[in-house]
Structures are given as structure tokens and as C-alpha cells.
Amino acid sequence: MRDRHAVSPYPLRMPDDLRAALDAAANKGGRSLHAEIVARLERTLQEDSQSLSDDLLEAIRLQANLTLALAAGLDSGLLDADRRQALDALASVSRRVAERLGDSASSAAGELAAPL
Predict the structure, then answer these.
(1) Among 28, 94, 107, 115, which is 20 to 30 Å from 4 by CA?
(2) Residue 94, CA distances (Å) to 82, 85, 110 in order
(3) In sequence order, what DSSP letters do the residues of 14-38 get, joined into one string?
(4) 77-68-96 Cα angle (round to 5)
(5) pLDDT, tens only, 33-44
(6) How far is the C-alpha of 92 from the C-alpha of 100, rounded, in Å?
(7) How far apart are CA 98 and CA 110, in angstroms?
(8) CA triplet 49, 50, 53: central angle to 5 degrees?
(9) Higher-confidence position of 82 and 48
(10) 30: left (phi > 0), else alpha (psi -120 to 50), else beta?
(11) For residue 102, is it left (φ>0), alpha (ψ between -120 and 50) or beta?
């Protein structure tokens, strides 16, 4: 256990009703007011981090689907060999990403993009 004096104190002003609600939650959970505030702050920071991760995964999923849709609509016969190979690789990675993220819409787009 850390020495409580090793952490610098931080005076916190808050509305009386908020303090009363935090006191009640602390008592119910068998914690001090300080421990309750710290636990709640840590939980919100973790939730923010998780929310960011979810947003990032959603952006990756959308990008994979967009890539597959664009690849499906592109006439690869108009591309030189290097660009066709790059498009095939990009579509392959996008299909794997979409499958890994469990997107059912991407499987249909992946089937359309498969003949590249």
C-alpha cells in the first residue's frame, strides 16, 4: 500500500449535492470519499480509452468496406500490371480486415472485388 502522504493533495470544490451523492456511493461501496472519486475518474478514463478503440475499429471497418466497394467498381483491365497487383493486394488486405472485424456487409463487397 502506498503512503498516502506520497500523493500530493488536491483541493477539490464541488456542489453540495454532488458531494452528498459521492459520499453516499462511497459509503455504499465501503470506500472513502477520496477512493470513490479516484475510482470513478479511473473508470471514466478507461471508458474513454475503450470508446476511442471502438471508434478506431469502426473507422478501419469503414475504410476496408470503401476500398472493397471501389475495387469492385474499378475496371482492373485498364491498369498496368504493377497497379493491378497493388489493387489486388489492397483488396485482399481489406477483405481480411473486414472479415476479422465481423462485418457481414463486407463479405458481399469482398465477393464483388474477388475477381480482380
Answers:
(1) 28
(2) 18, 14, 8
(3) --HHHHHHHHHHHHHHT--HHHHHH
(4) 115
(5) 999 999 999 998
(6) 12
(7) 9
(8) 90
(9) 82
(10) left
(11) left
- CA 20 vs CA 15, 25, 35, 38, 44: distances in Å: 9, 9, 15, 16, 20
Q: Distance of CA 60 to CAs 13, 30, 54, 91, Å?
A: 41, 42, 10, 14
pLDDT (tens digit per residue) in 34-81: 999 999 999 988 887 777 787 888 888 888 888 888 888 887 778 888
- Using the predicted structure, report yes or no on whether residue 83 has a pLDDT greater than 50: yes
Cell representation of residue 7? 500523493
Question: The C-alpha cell of 99 is what?
Answer: 472479415
pTM score over 0.85: no
